[in-house]
Design goal:
Layout lengths: L1 H9 L18 E2 L5 E5 L7 H4 L7 H12 L20 E5 L12 H17 L5 E5 L1 H13 L16 E4 L2 E6 L4 H4 L6 H15 L5
Parallel strand pairs: 2-3, 2-4, 4-6
Antiparallel strand pairs: 1-3, 5-6
């Protein structure tokens, strides 16, 4: 992944020529008092790997932060660059893998190398009540992290699905299709479907399990 993220930065597509790429591991972003933790797969090669902020500078981020803005979790719907003034309230955005992987397909070794960062974040985010997993990879990664933190994962293992829910220790795990172009362009994920996820996340974060 190190070689890939640096190679992308050295030879970017024409639309990003002349821009300085972050091309390093991505830190998480948001409100340290967050009740809702949004977990993605990994930084996009020409998105977060370029801008230096999770889900920023690509269409997935446009969808994500617009939905979070509509849910009252972000002060603006845009995610252009890390200096654009975006602030989150009650939410934290992270990922299972912290460097851009080739073809957006991290290996299990890359996953296992990165998940301790999310483990440590959850230890520090004392108010966290809800994990929103964007996609099956993030869902499985969150379950792995929660198990590592000593929380008992239900058996059989909870299956991923859009608006799937599972209680794991003190946290609620909530599934959402990833706001990738593959999903949003095909209609597999609509704005209404993503809004439903964050509406539910806010409810769960407030302590309502109804």
């Amino acid at each position: 992944m190190v070689a890939w993220r640096e190679a992308v930065a050295a030879d970017p597509p024409k639309r990003h020529r002349g821009e300085e790429y972050w091309a390093r591991p991505l830190p998480a972003f948001g409100d340290p008092k967050a009740k809702i933790v949004v977990v993605g797969l990994a930084p996009a090669a020409n998105g977060a790997n370029r801008t230096g902020r999770m889900f920023t500078g690509d269409r997935s981020g446009d969808w994500l932060y617009a939905a979070m803005h509509r849910a009252g979790l972000a002060n603006q719907p845009q995610s252009i660059d890390r200096d654009d003034g975006l602030r989150l309230s009650g939410a934290w955005v992270s990922a299972i893998v912290r460097c851009a992987p080739p073809d957006n397909k991290p290996t299990t070794i890359e996953r296992d190398t990165c998940v301790p960062y999310l483990e440590r974040e959850l230890e520090l985010l004392a108010n966290a009540r809800v994990l929103v997993a964007l996609g099956a990879f993030a869902w499985d990664g969150c379950l792995r992290v929660l198990r590592s933190l000593g929380h008992e994962v239900p058996r059989p293992k909870p299956r991923f699905g859009h608006l799937a829910e599972a209680e794991v220790g003190p946290l609620a795990l909530l599934g959402s299709y990833h706001p990738s172009q593959q999903n949003t362009f095909t209609g597999r994920l609509t704005e209404e479907m993503l809004d439903a996820v964050f509406h539910r996340a806010v409810k769960l974060g407030s302590g309502s399990l109804d």
